[in-house]
Amino acid sequence: MPVFDALAGSSGSSFEMWTERTPSHPVVHLRGAFNMRNAEPACRQICAAAAMVTPPRIVMDFSEMTEMDCSGLGAVMVIWERLRDVGGLIVLACLPPFFRDLFARLGPDWHLALCDNLAQATALVRRPLPDT
Question: Which of 37, 54, 95, 106 makes an SS bond possible with 13, Cβ 3.0 to 4.6 Å?
Answer without folding.
Answer: 37
